[in-house]
Amino acid sequence: MYQKMDEDRKLEFNFTAQDVIDQGRTKREYIEEIMEWLPVSGDKLVPAVLDEQVILLFLLSCKNDVEFTKKTILAFYRCKKAAPEIHDQRDLNRPDIKLALNTIHMSSIPVRTDDNCAIHYFKLHDPNYHNFDLYAIMKISYMLLDVTLKNNPPDGLVVVIDMKGLGLLHMTKLKIGAIKKYFHFLQEGFPMQLRVIYVINAVYFMDKIMSIIRVFMKSELVDMLKIYPADMPNEKLHELIPKKCWPKEYGGDLPSERDLHDITMDQLKDRQTYWRTEELIRKECEK
């Protein structure tokens, strides 16, 4: 018999595991098998009990392969332990996070693709490279994940990165250790199926960026990366992602990217309790 989550340790979601089971997307026995495995996982970093929704998200990200799900859960907690500078202290009042949220505009796009993929959109807002704090920007990009996963779980994730405004001096802010840790989590412990990464308005030195990051990318991730040049016509962008999912700056049906960023800011504020509780659970396991 598996343990149950204490009420004060429950994480907030706007769906239940039963909702997703009723949709035919997973099975109750898969969730229960993971719940029975948690206390005997053999790794002290893994909590002995998790919310059903958390387990469900891992199962969906692993296409309901229970053994693969176990490996992903292990990697999730090990990666977070190894990179507290990316995964801990997700407080919107921190000066570095405030700076990052002004440097980068981002959005969990409110309209999903026809195949129920969520879209994460990122764009450089402040081009001053002095304000480009890589660790903080990595942190907020993963904070966006928790915004998206609060609601009906998507079947995959599409990432859009608009590189307009990025300059050569931004490369001086890249940190090899941070890049390695970021990609390790993305490829081993990420609780969502990453489908594709679209890089638009690619800079002329994209080859230099790739020479730095490619060493940390598996071939599967490299294949997901699709790079497009500057000033690509909106009609071509709409062939990548439906028009209904683009901000109006790209000829889309949604509000401006600034308005979408402001909406996301409110969604981030709504997840503060979630992050405090999630980190507390991890820290108790690390003692």
TrEMBL record:
<dbReference type="GO" id="GO:1902936">
    <property type="term" value="F:phosphatidylinositol bisphosphate binding"/>
</dbReference>
<dbReference type="InterPro" id="IPR001251">
    <property type="entry name" value="CRAL-TRIO_dom"/>
</dbReference>
<dbReference type="InterPro" id="IPR036865">
    <property type="entry name" value="CRAL-TRIO_dom_sf"/>
</dbReference>
<feature type="domain" description="CRAL-TRIO">
    <location>
        <begin position="134"/>
        <end position="258"/>
    </location>
</feature>
<dbReference type="InterPro" id="IPR036273">
    <property type="entry name" value="CRAL/TRIO_N_dom_sf"/>
</dbReference>
<dbReference type="Pfam" id="PF00650">
    <property type="entry name" value="CRAL_TRIO"/>
</dbReference>
<protein>
    <recommendedName>
        <fullName>CRAL-TRIO domain-containing protein</fullName>
    </recommendedName>
</protein>
<dbReference type="GO" id="GO:0016020">
    <property type="term" value="C:membrane"/>
</dbReference>
